Amino acid sequence: MKQKNSFPPVKIAVLIDGGFFVKRFNSLYNKDRKMSGAQVADYLYTMAMKHVGNSNTLYRIFYYDCLPLDKKVHNPISKKLVDFSLTDEYKFRIDLLETLKRKRKVALRIGTLKDNHNWQIYPGRVKELLSGKKKLEDLKDSEIYLDVQQKGIDMKIGVDIATLTLKKFVDTIVLFSGDSDFVPAAKLARREGIDFILDPMQANVEPQLFEHVD
Predict the structure, then answer these.
(1) Phi, psi values for residue 145, rounded to 5°
(2) What is the pLDDT of residue 38?
(3) Which distant-in-sequence residues (6+ apart) come within 8 Å of 10 by Cβ?
(4) Which of 98, 200, 113 is nearest to 151 (CA)?
(5) What pTM was computed for the model?
(6) What's the pLDDT score for residue 51?
(7) Which of 41, 49, 69, 111 has its CA 20 to 30 A from that of 90?
């Protein structure tokens, strides 16, 4: 009687691009935005652990994100004061981060938010303006947003991939993302014998990234 093939347990690191994860999770499972940050953190942990399985070992879950914007600004349409620290989005993000801090083997990698001091119109409204279906003076407060950008996140992910790879801390790296900026890091990991797995959460992935993952 032939024995079933058995594979030795491997050590796995799970890297999660927080901005990407929250956007995809809300689109797939939280469209009505009724889940709290703590609930989403629980789902995140469960989804990460599914990649580890029962027979392997979790090295660590790395979660990359920025602290939410907490400044006060005036909306350029209504001139009303907006305190971002009182918004539902701020509370959600803080709740998510605080819950993850208490999870076993989770490490937070926090970047910074850069306020570009510019307000942008949501793409859907721009199309309506260009087509003449909407006039500029008809824009509402909720149809514009403050332009802020995450800084340092991609660099932190790339450095961690290189460190985990070159120091032989893990056998497998799982990355929750769809960003082709990680192609050089993925290529390095695979050249060094790391099994590099991508979880794009059903998002479209650029061909060059698919080419360099397992």
Answers:
(1) -145, 155
(2) 97
(3) 56, 57, 170, 171, 172, 195
(4) 113
(5) 0.89
(6) 96
(7) 49
Closest CA to 114 of 152, 142, 74, 77: 152
Report which secondary-structure segment, H or E, holds 11: strand 11-17
At residue 200, φ and ψ (nearest 5 deg) are -85, 5
Nearby residues of 65 by Cβ (< 8 Å), 6 or more positions away: 18, 19, 22, 93, 97, 108, 109, 110, 111, 150, 153
Of 109, 130, 94, 98, the residue nearest 61 (C-alpha): 109
**Which positions of the chain have pLDDT values less than 70?**
1-7, 209-210, 212
DSSP 122-187: -HHHHHHHHHTSS-GGG--GGGEEEEEEEESHHHHHHHHHHHHHHTT--SEEEEE---GGGHHHHH
Closest CA to 171 of 135, 201, 117, 214: 214
